[in-house]
Structure formats: C-alpha cells, structure tokens
Amino acid sequence: MPKVYIKTYGCQMNERDSEQVARQFQERGYELTSTEMDADVILLNTCSVRDQAEQKALSNMQRLRGMKRENPNLVLGFMGCMAQSRGKELLDRLPDLDLVVGTQRFHRTVDHVESMRGSERMRISDVKEEDGSQNTIRDHLLMPNQVTAFVSIMQGCNMHCTFCIVPSTRGEERARPISEIVAEVRGLVARGVREVTLLGQIVNFYGRHEFPVVDGKTPFVQLLEAVHAVEGLERIRFTSPHPSGFRDDLIDAIARLPKVCEHVHLPVQSGSNRVLKAMHRPYTVEKYKEIVQKLRDRVPNVAITTDVIVGFPTETEEEFQETLNLARQIEFDQAFVFRYSPRRDTPAATMEGQHAEKEKERRNQELLAIVNAGIKRKLETQVGKEVEILVEGESKNNVSRFTGRTRNNQIVVFPGAERHRGQLLKVRVEQCLGFSLLGDPDIL
Fold first, then answer.
1. What is the C-alpha to C-alpha distance for residues 353 and 337, in angstroms, rounded to an integer?
2. Per the omega criterion (within 30 degrees of 0), is the bond before 59 cis?
3. Which residues pair with residue 308 across a beta bridge?
C-alpha cells in the first residue's frame, strides 16, 4: 500500500483543504503517514500570506530533494496558495519537483499523482480556475473520537486589500448551497462531532452574490440558523468575518442562537483611519469600535479577537500609537500581530515608505506587550468561576491532562480521563496558566 505524507502551512482553510486531499488518497487505497521518511508521496500545502511561510515551504522542499535522489520514484509536490501564485515557475526552479496543484484543483491531486506513478513519468503544473471548486471541499478525515471539525462554506475573496495576495490565489467569492453544508454537518454529527467551525475567507459575505436576503436576514445568518437546527450539534463557531458587512442581523443571530459561541474573530488590521484607507479596508476605527460595542451590549461575555499588521508602508509613529491606543481601549481577548510582509503583485509591495525589519519588529513587540497584558488580565478574572468546556482530548503539552475550550474560546486544562472526551463539562477555574486556565478536578 503506497504511503502519502502531507505537510500544511498557514490558515485553517489550508488545514481543511489538506484534510480533503488526505481523504481522497485514503479512498484510493493510500495509507497516510506521519513521517516523510517512509512516504511514497510528499505534498506541501503552502501559504502565501506572509513571506516567512513561503520561505519555510521552499526550504523544506529543497531539503526533500536529497530523498528524491535516493528514491527516484518518490513524488514531490506543492499544493495551495504559493502553488497557485507561482505555478510552473516552481517546476522551473526546482528540477526534482513533480507536481504543482492550485487552490481550485485540490480534487485533481490524486489523479495527477496516480498518473505520475504510472509507466510514463511526467511533471505537472495545474493552477487552472474551475467553476464549482468550492463544492469539492466536503469530505472529512476524522481522527478517532474527534469532536470538532472545520466546514468550508465558500472560497475566494473580492475585497482586494492592498497587502493581501489571497484574491489572486483563491479567486473570487463563491458559495456552497446551504443544503449541502447542512448535510455535511449532519454527517459530521453522526460521526461524533459536537462542534463545527464554518470557514470562509470573509465568512459574513457568504452567498451575497448567489442567494437573496430573506426577512432582513443575510445568507450567512440564514446558514447559521440552518446549521443551528442540526440535532446533536452543540456548538457553532465561524471565522473570519470582515468589519464591512458585519450587520445587526449577525449580531442578533449570535445573541439569540444558543449554539453559536460567544466569540468573534474580527480583524481590525490598524488603529489608524489613514492606514486603513491605504490598506483598502473600507471601514473606520470608529465603525469598528461601534461593532465591538454592539456585540458587547447584546452578547454577554463575548470574546473579541483580532488580526493586526504593524509596519505597513507609510505607517507613521503617530499612526502606530493609534493602534496601541485602540488595543488598550478594546482590550482584545487575543490578537494575532503580524509584521507587514511585502507580497509580490500587491499594491502595498511597491508603495513608498517601506519600513526596515528592525523597526517592524520593534512595533510588533510593543503591541504584543499591550495585547498580552490585557489577555492575562482577562484570564485572571476567570479564577474561581465555573465555566463550561467542550473536552477535545489530551493536552498537547501534558499527557496527564485533558483540554477543552470555553464558549468564548479560552483554553482550559484539567486532570481528566478519556471518558470526558466530547463531553460538555462544568469546571471551576483554579488557576491562570499564562494564556490558558487550569480547571479544578474536584467537581468532575
């Protein structure tokens, strides 16, 4: 039985795409392996959002070339966003590379590999656009007793932020039908999944070109209601929405649908209106704060998490200070802070006023210090409180403990047992452990 190894870089959508490809290999009789050393096929699912992710993937592939020379029958391939962006250029650059598969052709990966492993060896770059590709990410490779799962509801993005390469790697927005998504969720629940996370490049724009607003509800809210009705499902999460188009009907849905978790990841990117305009982010800081306030008014204990870019071209020290002030005002429950990374073929890459890496790193560390202090303050307020967690399994850092998440996405570890996996448990928070919480075992 041939073996395939898949390494994933980047976001949750990449994880979901890799899972889909792995499932298709299994269906063709391949065995999945956790090590590249005994693999017959090695695929790297790539990310292009930041240069660091691209360089890691390229460096890893360079290292794998030695294995290919020892085993000429080994198939080496790139999938995903970098594959889509660079295409045949990768084959020209890396003579031992066999396969490049773009973001709309994941479902062709196994066919291409099978043709390569046949009598006639060839090298393939397949980065074509394909109508309906959003409907091909529907099968799941679940681990034993897995209780959470990602569900891809759409592909693509139409926003064209000046720093972002995603519209050119993922294509235009395309949505899956609600009925197909609901059927997929039902199937997951039948296999033991208790929580799903709905994935979209801009998830609150789901279906805006394909489906009508009904009774004042956008297609995404209609989808939330339909998924909420699935019996046996306990929790619903979604990521990532955009402040533009974050309407009151969505805030209302989060407030009134019990299965929708009290956690919104809402990327702000900058605390400066001028920088937001340069980024082509069509909202203001004031609008962003208004959305956050509405969420906090309507949804008790809602967690607000975000993405921020520091060192964007032309960002002044005063504008950076505006971002620091915004972080202090909102006190995010978590923030992913990124140093600006030029991406080729994006407007920001050729803007004047590019910052040195040392300056970007300084700003990164200053913002992280403020964000992390706020996170710890919020976690410390949980000590002594009783919280509900969905137990996901053993802790990655301590096999003697189990781990789960609260509805607002706080991680809780506790001295549990296998019987607790998949259960909704009430635990009393005993201690703050840096960026997670320790649950009291006495009430189990």
1. 20
2. no
3. 269, 337
Angstrom distance (rounded) from CA 270 to CA 345: 22
Q: What is the rounded CA–CA span in Å between residue 261 and residue 113?
A: 40
Burial class of residue 152 (count of CB atoms within 10 Å of its CB; 0-12, 13-18, 19+)? buried
Q: What is the pLDDT of residues 8-33, one digit of tens each?
A: 998 999 999 999 999 999 999 999 99
Q: What is the pTM of this model?
A: 0.93
What is d(CA 342, CA 365) in angstroms, rounded to the nearest whole number?
19
Whole-angstrom Cα distance, residue 440 to residue 123? 56
CA-based torsion, 405, 407, 409, 410: positive or negative = negative
Label each residue of the chain as H, E or C.
CCEEEEEECCCHHHHHHHHHHHHHHHHCCCEECCCHHHCCEEEEEECCCCHHHHHHHHHHHHHHHHHHHHCCCCEEEEEEHHHHHHCHHHHHHCCCCCEEECCCCHHHHHHHHHHHCCCCCCCEEECCCCCCHHHHCCCCCCCCCCCEEEEECEECCCCCCCCCCHHHHHCCCEECCHHHHHHHHHHHHHCCCCEEEEECCCHHHCCCCCCCCECCECHHHHHHHHHHCCCCCCEEEEECCCCCCCCHHHHHHHHHCCCECCEEECCCECCCHHHHHHCCCCCCHHHHHHHHHHHHHHCCCCEEEEEEEECCCCCCHHHHHHHHHHHHHHCCCEEEEEECCCCCCCHHHHCCCCCCHHHHHHHHHHHHHHHHHHHHHHHHCCCCCEEEEEEEEECCCCCCCEEEEECCCCEEEECCCHHHCCCEEEEEEEEEECCEEEEEHHHC
The pLDDT tens digits for 216-240 are: 999 999 999 999 999 999 999 999 9
